[in-house]
What we know:
This protein is α/β, with parallel strands linked by helices. It is built from 13 helices and 16 strands. Helix 3 runs antiparallel to helix 4 (98-116), helix 6 (142-154) runs parallel beside helix 7 (168-181) and helix 10 (246-254) runs parallel beside helix 12 (271-284).
Amino acid sequence: MQISHIEVLPVELELSEPHRTATRSGELELAECVFVRIETRGGQVAWGCAAFDPAQTGESIDQVTRACEACADRALDLNPLNTEYALAELAVLTNDTPSVRCAFDMAFHDLLGLAAGLPLHRLLGGYRSRIQTSVTLSLYPVRETVRAARDRAAQGFRILKLKGGLDPQEDVRRVLAVHEALPNLILRLDADQGYSIQQALDVARALEGKLEMLEQPTPAGDLRALGEVTRHSKIPILADESLTGPASALELAGQHLAHGMSVKLATCGGLHCARQVDAIARAAGIATMVGCISEPALLIAAGLGLALSSPNVRYSDLDGHLDLIGDPTLPSFRLEDGWLIAGEVPGLGCTVEI
Length: 354
């Protein structure tokens, strides 16, 4: 297969509601990303998307756009169906921009699916066709958190992930208030690296029986602290920011520093990397969660393909497209009562109107 043309298209998307987290000094009101359109000599069109969180990877829109353009120039001489070789050739151009590696990884897998006539989740393994996702609640005060939880429950979601990490005692109050208001919903808490070991264990003890999991309670670089919390917590502990790729996954799994790992395509570098992480987790007998950042539905479709392909993916947090205004993606997957359901369109199953 020969690529004939590649377009690099930067896009800014406003959020319908600003996102508040412990890791940001202000509110997130805008999601910047770069779409990549690949056309082959046979007339097939595939899409990728580079979305990034500067707080996690340090990327900027200018840096990402330049890296996309460099990869586009190199990719014109590559056969995208030789995915391993093509991605290895682009790796040297994307050392500091995992979102760009993810964009071309997605587009190449889109072309693989088109060539095979298979949707991504079947191409990667076809374990199931639907999965339940959580929806994230920003870092609000107690009353606002309950109101937001009721709104999401009214939309059909049955799993809520609360952002926390600024005040452990306030986080406990928020979770308990939501549990009291909506006792039949599954609750998760993402501490965004905000706790000490003792604070994390105190929160886990206070919320035992109320939380499905506690995500990244301690600073990303302090693996000893994460392992200490994991050893003593009765609530499952998931690593998020501590996971940066297969090497960190091997360390986390080999030392049993978490009960599970949350992998995001945008921050780890795409499906190729994320599948290695999932294989490591599966071999170690720990769970995988496929997560996301604020990202277009095109990226959600790729994450969904991974989540549906592996029996080791026990958790899904694929809601990053819900608050974006003007997302140009037209996905074939459906969201029904909190369940993401794959379409049967080959590849990523998305069209993009830019």
